[in-house]
Amino acid sequence: MVKQKIFSTSRGWTWCTLASIFLLTACNNTSKGQNEEKWKPLFDGKSLTGWKTVGGNAPYKIEDGAIVGRMTKGTPNSFLITEQEYGDFVLELDVKLEGDNTNSGIQTRSHIDKDANNGRGRVYGRQVEIDPSARAWTGGIYDEGRRNWLYPLDLNERAKSAYKPGEYNHIRIEAIGNETKTWVNDIPVAYVIDTVDAKGFIGLQVHSIPEALDGKQVFFKNVNIQTENLKTKDFPKDVYVVNLTPNKLSKAEEDAGYKLLFNGIDATNWRSTRSDEFPKKGWKIADGIISVQKSDGGESTNGGDIVTTDQFSAFDLSFEFKLTPGANSGVKYFVTLKEQTHGSAIGLEYQVLDDEKHPDAKLGRNGNRTLASLYDLITSNREPRPRRPIGEWNRGRVVVTPDNKVVHYLNGEKMVEYQRGSQAFKDLVAISKYKDWPAFGEAKKGHILLQDHGDNVSYRNIKIKVL
Questions:
Q1: Which domains does the chain have, with CATH numbers?
Q2: Does the predicted model carry a pTM greater than 0.85?
Q3: Strands 242-243 and 187-193, how do they pair?
């Protein structure tokens, strides 16, 4: 049969032309179908096939196409976990909690110590937090049963408003390679790069609770996963990345403007406060670590302090440190090297200290010489949770914005916040050991310093972004 023209020849459209367009569209749709995301349900809405309960005794049931966990007094954390383990995946699901003081979470690439909890087992691994409390850390990343908080939402405060109380909240989790990213209701929340646990099970948590919360419920539905042809969603460059890979920048960090201050190999970017050379004694660089060596416990009496060769004004500084028992050190900023001093060089100091065993923690005013404090000026958040045991790595961070707002973080939690050069700041300086130095802490720029206080303290993963 001969096809007639469907448009006038003046427009140039013929059945032949239209057929070609249809053929091209069909080819494109076929190609798209081969590459599009393929979701698989982890929960069929009717049964718990493929799942099992471990840890505590909280019951799970199915109700209106949702998995419903009941919070139960007198039992430890309970988990409904997949029988299958997963490596790289994208997981999406909807979660709702009753109450504003309850808690839940989604385990990713997790494992179980089968002998713990009297044979019930104890789950450990990275957990995406569901937190309806005033703290509002939903979407943050917690290392259940192991390292505690990896990404509390003090690191991304804009995301605290993503959670909707009393409603189903849509959670997206990407676990691809060493990277885990989270979204809550399509808002980007957390980004962690971690070298442990390449695969493991997925789990749905019913948290242990006080008696007053007995009977509260948590609901999970629309639990779907992709494991092939994974495509990551865009993540904003200005959201902080917790990179636990020592002395290595991720592409995301490089794109955001971070640079390593310590390369893990040599003293590039560092020199003594006493000369243009790196100290010949008192410091050691080995195994990706730069460490102050033990001497007499005095300020700058051995190798002396070291500073960056460059100076900085507004910046985002991250570092990891590990204390030995009773040790003292510090990370200073806005160090000009112009002040006359017989001990350590002068500058604003993020205190690095064993609070329990070093006497400096008891000096000063109201604890303002304790770990993560602005030394001798502002006492850090005294909540014990952010502090890791002596001998373990802690993550410090100092952010100075162009308007001179300064924040100290410890393991992702906000510890100190102040305005450099404000009247409140000047009033604190006036009653501190720094009162005799004019305009202390108000320099426009300065070096970053690692302090030699005569004790063995190690540093690594030192990186900075100029703001």
A1: 40-226 (2.60.120.560), 246-466 (2.60.120.560)
A2: yes
A3: parallel
